[in-house]
Amino acid sequence: MSKTQVATCINGDTHEFLCDTHQTLLDVLRHELDLTGSKEGCATGDCGACSVMLDDRLVCACLVLGVEVDGKEIETIEGMSSGSGLHAIQQKFIDLAALQCGICTPGVLVATKALLTKNKNPSEEEVRFWLAGNLCRCTGYDKIVRAVLEVAADMRNA
Amino acid sequence: MAQLILTGSLKNLTKGVGAFNIQAKNVHQLVGELKQICPVLAPLIESEGFAVAIDGEIYQDILFAPIGENSEVHLIPPIGGG
Amino acid sequence: MNDMTQSNLERALKIVGTRPARPDGVDKVTGRALFGSDKSLPNMLVGRVLRSPYAHAKIISIDTSKAEALNGVKAVITCADFEDFPSEFVPNGEMVVNLKDITRNIMAREKALYVGHTVAAVAATSDEIAEKALGLIDIKYEVLPHVLEVEDAERPDAPLLHEDMITIGVEPAPKKASNVAKRVEFGFGDVEKGFAEADLIVEREFTTQQVHQGYIEPHACLASVSEDGQADLWCTTQGAFVVRNFCSKLLGLSAAQIRVTASEIGGGFGGKTVVYLEPLALALSRKSCRPVKMDMSRAEVFTSSGPTSGAKIWVKIGVKNDGRITAGDCVLKYQAGAFQGAPVGPGAMCAFAPYDLENVRAVGYDIVVNRPKVAAYRAPGGPISEYGVESVLDEIAIKLKIDPIEIRLKNAAKEGTIAPYGPKLGPIGMIETLEAAKAHPHYSAPLGPNQGRGVASGFWFNIGGETSSSITINEDGTVGLTLGTTDIGGSRASMAMMASEELGVPMDLIKPVIGDTNSLGFNFLTGGSRATFSTGMTVVRSTREAIEELRKRAALLWEVDLDQVEWVDGHARLIAGDEPKTMSLAQIAKQAGKTGGPIMANCSMNVTGAGPSLGTHIVDVEVDTETGKVSIVRYTAIQDAGKAIHPAYVEGQMQGGAVQGIGWALNEEYIYNDKGQLENAGFLDYRIPVCSDVPMIDTVIVEVPNPNHPYGVRGVGETPIIPPLAAISNAVSRATNIRFNELPLSPPKVLARLMHG
User: How far apart are the CA of A139 and the nearest CA of chain C, in angstroms?
Assistant: First the structure.
């Protein structure tokens, strides 16, 4: 099977890779580039554990083909705490115990950052509907929603 | 004297006898004694495993849990969990 | 044990009870944490599984020759690659397992017993080749009639899954084989006499559907067996030692030949307590002499790992007019899946356990059906039986015009109550959780139109078991903890907190890690709400032993007797003497080499003395009378934790358990078609609660200390999934004035009752 050459920018770094036309972006991230922070919970776009930013759009990496990202910019969980320590969202999740097993956490964090970029003052309902695509089976969502609301307030006041 | 109390399924196996006086001073001795006084229970305990409650405290697979002079001993199935 | 239990219940605590950051927090929020499928090895192969398309079929022949001939295929395995075992129950930690069944569940032998049952597996150089190879395996089946529901499976003419299965627990033993594996009975007193004394008797039948734990991380493992038979296994599991023991038996390897390292675990809830892929990956690796990685797709997780039972139950309760229960009786019929082992025993034991009854009986049946073999799911068996009892109790409360909390208070179990399974209960917090519920503002808040408020309680035993951990005092005064129970929801934090409290040094100087199976003695798995209780017990003991050694070293340096040295706030202190003298842990540790060598301690024990945890939940629902949709408007979970080491993670357990219960009550169910195929094997159609489905889950932690633990810990993880089923059903019943007795309360089912009564 012939492979396609793809050039992309991931977390600010340029990456070139060869991929099969059927490979998803998630396959490429995890298996070709060793960026295993994005998780595979379903591979059908239902769980959100593989949430990444693709040119400023929140997507499930399992629903994007590797060949589609040529020339695009991608941000994954590995890019969230660039150099100067944890992002405020990451720190807030630790402080408020907004994770238990942690498998959904990368996707939830990426989705939360996307929300707070678009909407600096979301209501509880807006947070709940925005994160409705990120399944968490451990926390019952309570502490996640509280963390998002609290970090949004912190970031507004910063 | 310590007593072994049987309820439910176990009491059905012993044809309705609900209590036995026991000499055993620990669970290890109890397993031996059961073979004598109530042989119908022995295979069940050996095949499926049983926990023992001594005066309300549950012991799973602890052979040398002490049985007191006037202890009340119950056999219960082992408990697992998610 | 009492020597170590009392002091801490009375002394002022500095760390225990606070909310510090968890030690693995940064790894979890940065994507660094390595879960089951996040690890790779050089020269690694990919393993894939061929699964039965039939719910029940005889396997006539398997021809793997074409698959083996495909370029890139390195190994193909079938049942011929595993030893067969006679029916034999062998202990594995606290579980007693039947190797005959397990070897048949990981790889079908004479028959395939459910759609998704493993029949062969392949290791190849790529996913595509492995997939292609599966298609080249030629299996001839003789399709047999199948059976999915307990009421069909127990009919005399039902197709038999196991032609030699004679019901255990029935006297005299039946002559004829059936699908009923076992009958159990618990209770005492005379229920007939109790019902004769009753002023009111309510009896009801209930149905619950099969539900899955729904952990977000699918099963995954990476096995590497070298030419000399040494095996390394990396996998996502609740119990590395339990996996090692399963695999050593199934593969004929010694325990010393297999080293199991537990990855970070992406949820388990009981579902990761048994083996599926692990023995296959080891067998494929042994055959190919290369590392083999395997993971399940989400669909495979649903069809082929163990969910919990669907059930039919019958509950009858008699009461006096004042609400005092005179008798309780129930019959529970639980689906086991393809092999015996439904959690009907614990279900029957805890059905009436929140209550103090004189006449009680609970009968359970473990019934095999052509569905995947069930595995543990949070408080296994409890939610189903207690749903029935708590629903009938609510109906009685309405009929007698008694407040639902009052009727529970009137009958609540307390210290000294004889549990329905025999022994007397120690101190428990049933009354305390009910009082806390009654006092909560939620309970007296007004309700809107089409809203109803439900209450229910729940009981879970909690367990101890075999546990081993160690502590190392490093030369620079920092501390290492090696733990043997998987950290599934923050237990590393609790362990470091308890060690920190004991040692009197800051928690950030303590590094807890989960050891592999070569680093400690056997540890039973994380489950049954035992980790913080049992591993915590060993951590406290080994830390105290390390403190004793630290005091000895200080005594040596000061040239005094040991009893002249006490341990206070992370320092050795000379008791007598002209001027106060102290030496810090770091100062002692620095000289450890010169005073006798490195300082470490370990503790291995079979922990007993777990204390049951009781919970009471309050829920407000709103029923959309047009669509039948039930919305959770407000939710409060109250539970006795004994002592909350890290209250945020205790709340998290309560909230997570409650929301799993909400899913069970409202939406989740396995839907099979008439061919026995699961029709909703994905998160889109098997709908677990999403963020927008639920409100905040308020929590109240009640603390009735467990006298058998140095800090009073009970364990909290299991109980919170029990009350939601009945609490929600009771709330919907009260909102609609229709008594519901079937789960899930999904819109079509609720709407049908609203329209037809």
Answer: 4
Mutate to test the interface with B, among C421, C462, C709, C721 (most CBs of B within 10 A): C421
C381-462+611-756 and C2-33+464-607 share a CATH fold: yes
Using a pLDDT cut of 90, give the percent of chain A over it: 96
- Which residues from C are below 8 Å from A109, CB to CB? 29
Kindly state whether B47 is in contact with chain C, defined as any CB-CB distance less than 8 angstroms: yes
Q: Residue B48 — pLDDT band, cuts 50, 70, 90?
A: low
Report domain extents, chain C: 2-33+464-607, 381-462+611-756
Across the interface, whether the CB atoms of B77 and C345 are under 8 A apart is answered yes
* Chain C CB contacts of A23 below 8 Å: none
* Residue C11: predicted pLDDT: 73
Inter-chain residue contact C608 with B53, CB threshold 8 Å: no
Which chain B residues are Cβ-neighbours of C268 within 8 angstroms? 82
Q: What pLDDT does C2 receive?
A: 38
Is B41's pLDDT higher than 90? no
Residue-wise DSSP of C175-218 = SS--SEEEEEEEEES-HHHHHHH-SEEEEEEEEE--B----SSP
CATH number at C2-33+464-607: 3.30.365.10
- Identity at C118, one-letter amino acid code: T
Give the integer Cα–Cα distance in Å for C494 and C480: 14
Residue C186 and residue B9: Cβ atoms within 8 Å? yes
Residues of chain A with Cβ-Cβ distance to C40 below 8 Å are 34
- Tell me if the bond preceding C598 is cis, omega within 30° of 0: no
DSSP string, B27-54: HHHHHHHHHHH-TTTHHHHHHH--EEEE
Mean local confidence (pLDDT), C715-725: 96
Asked if the domains A4-79 and A88-157 are classified in one and the same CATH topology, the answer is: no
Candidate CATH numbers 3.30.300.10, 3.30.365.10, 3.50.50.60, 3.40.50.300; the one for domain C381-462+611-756: 3.30.365.10
pLDDT band at C369; cut points 50, 70, 90:
very high
pLDDT the model gives residue C95:
63
Mind listing the pLDDT tens digit for each residue in C109-142? 999 999 999 999 999 999 999 999 999 999 999 9
Interface subset of C 651-710, CB within 8 angstroms of B:
708
CATH class of A88-157: mainly alpha
**C25 vs B: CB within 8 A:** no
Mutate: best of C90, C185, C467, partner B, most B CBs <10 A: C185
Rounded CA-CA distance B26/B44 in Å is 19
Instruction: Tell me the shortest Cα–Cα distance from B70 to chain C, in angstroms.
Output: 14
Q: Residue C3: what pLDDT?
A: 45
Specify the DSSP element, H or E, that contains C702. strand C697-702
Domain boundaries, chain A: 4-79, 88-157
Residue C527 touches chain B, beta carbons under 8 Å: yes
C270 φ, ψ (degrees, to nearest 5): 105, -25
Using a CB-CB cut-off of 8 Å, the residues of chain C touching A99 are 25, 28-29
Dump the DSSP string for C28-88. Answer: HHHT-S-BTTS---TT-EEEEEEE-SSSSEEEEEEE-HHHHHSTTEEEEE-GGGS----S-
Q: In what order do the strands lie in the sheet with C571-574?
A: C565-568, C571-574, C582-584
| Lowest mean per-residue pLDDT among C227-231, C325-329, C753-757 | C753-757
- For chains B and C, having 3+ Cβ pairs within 8 Å is answered yes
A4-79 placed in CATH 1.20.1250.20: no
CB-nearest to C423 from B12, B15, B53 is: B53
* Residue C713 contacts residue C642 (beta carbons within 8 Å): yes
Q: Does C242 touch chain B (CB under 8 A)?
A: no
pLDDT digits (tens, 9 = 90+) for C282-314: 999 999 999 999 999 999 999 999 999 999 999
pLDDT score recorded for residue C591: 96
Which tokens is A86 given?
């944890």
